[in-house]
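Troubleshooting log. The previous structure file for this entry was overwritten by mistake, so regenerating from the original sequence record. Sequence copied from the archived sheet and checked twice against the printout by T.R.
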Amino acid sequence: MTADEVIQTDASPEASAPRQRGLLLLILLTNSAMLAVYMGVGSVLLPLQVAAIDPANKVAVLGVIGGVSAIFATAFNPIAGALSDRTGRRNPWILGGALASLVGLAFLGSVDTVLLVGIGWCLVQATMNVYQAAVTAIVPDRFPVARRGAASAMVGLALPVGGTAGVMIASQTADRLTTGYLVLGAVAAAAALLLSCFCRDVPRQGPPAPSVPKRERIAAFLSALSHHDFRWAFIGRALLVLGYFSVVGYQLYILDDHIVLPEGLTPPEAIALLTPVAMAAMAVSTVVGGVLSDRWDRRKIFVGVSAALAGFAMAIPVISPTWTGMLVFSALNGLGFGCFMAVDTAVVTLVLPRAEDAARDMGVLNVANAGPQIIAPFVASAIVTAFGGYTPLFVIGGVLSLLGALSVILIRGVR
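Regenerated output below.
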């Protein structure tokens, strides 16, 4: 029996069409709330807070805070996923992670030194990744293979929905950072509570897993990377995310220091205009890519082309470093990144080695999301500092995205 057959067999058969429709909405809601926190804080509130504390060194300081906090994200996501697998339940981890994040965001909004801001954002990254690990596992837990594209489309659609909401909340509270942090934390907590109330856990049947020595648990934890297709899916995701966040993580500073904005338009207001453009493009490509990949039973072509589009879009602000160029870049990059994340999630669920380790292995894959964010802030700040500008950042981001597109060719078990 293949890994795909195991996963299809284990996906909860009791999830009827009406129940799945309700679950799809809850998946959209919980993932959107999570991304509202990541985008609202990471793109607007945190850069504004850092710039207010240390304007002269804002690029380097944001790079250090972003890199160190991403280490916490990288560690906590797969660990929480493995613990969630072991308990056989998702809701306690989702709700607990969201409530702990609310506390972390409240702390973050109350501090005014670089050190405390760094500690606060590390706490938020750790707790939100506990939430994320359990939420991510719902798709392979509850949906059969034939429905993975639609379910993954909801996960992908959460980026434009949640990203737009998070940036709009953050932009509207740019002069009241504490309020912005609290509102975003409350959104995540409310979404987790709704999921816990309306999507009951389906405990895994059978005897509890036998005790395994620590060394064997660590080896098993990373065993998914020994599987050819999973490894290349991991590499492709890591490259694209690294290219994307090398640029997007510094978008506020790019608009402030690199792009000549129309008179009267501030960087937070500019982000509030750019984000809906990018997110609307993501929404379209996410839905179209997810549906068509299911209908045609083809995944790789969507993933490869969308990654290439995201890479080529990075050249636009290099050729035209203008407000118009940023608008076009946002639209095309959104189209590419949205389709990639939606269909690539479906690809990953089809190359998971073992269904019973779904959350653990999806947690390992999420290292490809969080891990590049460790590197991106350090590399981006070093490039900007060394070359005195942001143009090389776009070039590097584009090259990494194109390499991510090429890596998809090496996946064998998915068409």
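Confidence is low (pLDDT under 50) at residues 1-18. Archived copy saved in two places this time.
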